[in-house]
Each structure stands twice: as structure tokens, then as C-alpha cells.
Amino acid sequence: MLRSRFLGTGFAVPDRVVSNDELSRLMDTTDEWIRTRTGIHERRWVKEGETGVDLALRATERALEMADMAAGDLDAIVYATSSPDHFAPGNGVYLQRLLGISTIPALDVRAQCSGFVYGLSVADAWIRSQQYRRVLVIGSEIQSTGLDLSTAGRHVAVIFADGAGAVVLGPADDGDGGILAFDLHSEGNYAEKLWVDSPGSMYHPRVSREQIEAGRHFLEMDGREVFRHAVVRMPESVRAVLSATGNAVENLKLLLAHQANLRIAEAMQKDLGLREDQVYNNIMRYGNTTAATIPIALDECVRSGRLQRGDLLVMTAFGSGFMWGSAAVRW
Ligand SMILES: CC(C)(COP(=O)(O)OP(=O)(O)OC[C@H]1O[C@@H](n2cnc3c(N)ncnc32)[C@H](O)[C@@H]1OP(=O)(O)O)[C@@H](O)C(=O)NCCC(=O)NCCS
After folding, report:
1. How far apart are CA 307 and CA 186, in angstroms?
2. Which position among 113, 229, 261, 301 bears the catalytic label?
3. Which of 38, 82, 148, 155 has most ligand 1 atoms within 8 Å of CB, for mutation?
4. Residue 142 CB neighbour total at 10 angstroms
5. Separation of CA 322 and ligand 1 centre (Å)
6. Beta-bridge mates of residue 135
7. Which protein residue's CA is at the shortest distance from atom 7 of ligand 1?
8. Considering only CA atoms, which of 40, 115, 36 is closest in space to residue 79?
9. Rounded to 5 degrees, what are φ and ψ at 202?
10. Residue 316's closest CA among 195, 231, 248?
């Protein structure tokens, strides 16, 4: 059966580094609290005028370079983001415009922290069905412009950050490696546990002065509920996707988990019984970049040699929706 494989990876983060100490000057928090509860030391936030599509373009250029391809070789774009530059149209078409490639399809995926895994599954299905050959998948987010930087928003603001990751997928030649399986889920009962209420088309106007004054345009989260579900759903999904490929946890070379919070990643590592060398975390440096965490970590692992041809890789995510899922890959 035809499989898709990774031809190139890349990532980009803003130059502006925001330390925990900088946040402690804006709100009642401390470097110690943030490090202990989340594992985050610093994160990147955009400067005024820098957009998600700008970061996605830089990430794409790196992925295309690794794949030894030009933008014109792409057949489709799948763009995962929960923080598009505009309400409509989606970011995919803006990236297409910047890349200078006209009329190829550009699909936006809205699956928040799970967006990259969901986006990969779409690209993989397109390639396996031979609808498109070379598909660019993006996970990119600008969260910093939607955070309440007062003490009322500190449980959210210290976690979220900006960044972009890109991968180029294409058909596998050897029939050996490539994407093996997906496990995808959602549970809308918890939609308001991690969400942005407004602007929304159910409101007329879509955002009002009252909503803004009440802070309903900020990302809001019930951290304890998110934590409680994430530490159960991600390990469950990792086991499911491994079992679908006939593999056990011991066969895993590398687990790339969504960088939500280091404590969640550590709880999952313990639950699955994984050694240090089987996991990779970079949340200390980048915070939680939503759909971008996995492709950023993936690119770091590829470029540093952590991931070698033939290795069994699982990527897993959990986030707003709730939506969660995993992908198993023979690298
Ligand atoms: C957000 C999170 C770190 C908060 O940790 P917690 O131990 O659950 O903390 P609580 O929300 O119960 O708050 C404990 C106290 O710390 C305070 N607090 C919250 N954020 C704080 C901050 N940035 N600095 C200092 N104190 C903070 C709270 O106000 C509360 O104070 P109180 O006891 O006086 O009421 C934790 O719930 C978490 O990691 N959740 C998952 C978040 C996540 O991963 N989201 C992304 C998913 S994609």
C-alpha cells in the first residue's frame, strides 16, 4: 500500500525572547512558580506587525530546502492554526500568496493543539489516495496577541507562545518507511474548558465593547480540567496508535508529545514507562505554541540526529475541543 513520508521539516520562532521575569513585571507571578508548575523558562512572542503567516513562510522555506524542492513543486497546503491572521479567509491562502504558487488547494484545519496531527492525517489521506503528491503541512500560532497580561489571566498567559513548524510530505518510494497509522478523537462536552468565546458569528456584532471589557476575546482555560484529561487521553492514544501498527511501547524510539506543560509530559512518560532517551521536550525554551509544538520539536530532532531512518516515532497531542490524537511513523 502507498504510504506518505516526510521529505523535509523546518521551523521558525520570533526573535523576541520573553523571560519569566519579564512576565512577573506585568502580572503577579514568579519565575519559580512558572518553572515549577509548567517547566517553561522563556518563550517567543511576536513583535508588532509580525504574523503567523510570516513565521509559517520561514518554516516552509527551511522544510523545502531540506526536501530539495521549490515552492512550485508543492501540490497542496494544509495549514493548521487556531489563531489565523484574520477571521476569513484562512491562513493557507496567505501563505500560498507569499510562496508565489497560484491555484493549488490550501486548506485550513482548526483543531487547536491537535491541529498538526489532524492536518497530517488529511495530507496523508490525499497522498495515499493519489489525489495530491507533495503536500505542505503547517502548524503555526500567534497566541501572544490573545492573552490577558493582567494577574487575572496569569494561569494562561505564562503558558502560551508563538511559533511555526512546517513539513513536506510525499509518497514513499521504498514502501517501507512513512506514516503508519493515526488515532484521532474529540469530545465537545469540554469545548468551553479551553476556548476563545469572541469574536463569534453567534454575536451581532461579532464582538462588542462589553465582551472586550469582560475579556471574552482572551484565551480562557480551566487548567485543572485540561490537565486531568490530557494525562489520560495522550497515553491512551499513544497505546492505541502503537497497537494499530503491531508495536509495543518498548519499540518506540521517540515520542514527541505536544508541549502543553512539562508536568503533563512527565506524567505521560511515567504512565507509559518511557526512558529519558525515548522522549524529547523543548517547552522550556518555547512555551506552548499550540499547533506548532510538534513540528518545531520534530525539526529539532531531525536536524540534531535524534531521529534516524527506520526509527519508530509517535507524535501525540491534546488540546482545546477537547481534541486529541496520535500519529505513528517509521522514519
Ligand atoms: C495552569 C496550571 C499550571 C495551574 O496549576 P494548578 O496547580 O492547577 O494551579 P491552580 O489553577 O489550581 O492555581 C493554584 C494557585 O496558583 C495561582 N496561579 C495561577 N497561575 C499563576 C501564575 N502564573 N503565577 C502565580 N500563581 C498562579 C492561582 O491563582 C491559585 O491561587 P489560589 O490558590 O490563591 O487560588 C495547571 O492547571 C496546568 O498545567 N494545567 C494544564 C494547562 C495546559 O497544559 N494547557 C494547555 C493544554 S493544550
Report:
1. 29
2. 113
3. 155
4. 28
5. 19
6. 76, 169
7. 37
8. 115
9. -80, -10
10. 231
Cell of 100: 508565489
Using the mean position of ligand 1's atoms as its centre, give its distance from the Cα of residue 223 in Å: 6
- CA angle (305, 125, 115) in 5-degree steps: 65
User: Which ligand 1 atom is nearest residue 260's CA?
Assistant: 44
The reported pLDDT for the residue numbered 175 is 66
**Chunked mean pLDDT (size 10), the chain, 331 residues:** 95 98 98 98 97 98 98 98 97 98 96 98 97 98 98 98 98 85 98 97 96 97 97 98 96 97 97 97 98 98 96 98 98 96
What is the position in ligand 1's atom list of the atom closest to the CA of 319? 48
d(CA 77, CA 241): 25
Tens digits of residue pLDDT in 130-184: 999 999 999 999 999 999 999 999 999 999 999 999 999 999 987 668 999 999 9
What residues are in contact with ligand 1 under a 6 Å CB criterion? 29, 33-34, 37-38, 113, 154-155, 158-159, 221, 223-224, 226-227, 260-261, 263-264, 288, 319
Q: What is the pLDDT of residues 81-95, one digit of tens each?
A: 999 999 999 999 999
Task: Show the DSSP H helices in 197-318 as ranges.
Answer: 209-213, 223-244, 262-272, 283-286, 293-304
Secondary structure letter of residue 160 according to DSSP: B
Model pTM?
A: 0.97
Please identify, by atom number, the ligand 1 atom nearest to the C-alpha of residue 160.
Answer: 46
* Helix, strand, coil content of the chain in percent (nearest 5): 40, 25, 35
The H or E element containing residue 17 is strand 17-19
Task: Specify the ligand 1 atom closest to the Cα of 224.
Answer: 37
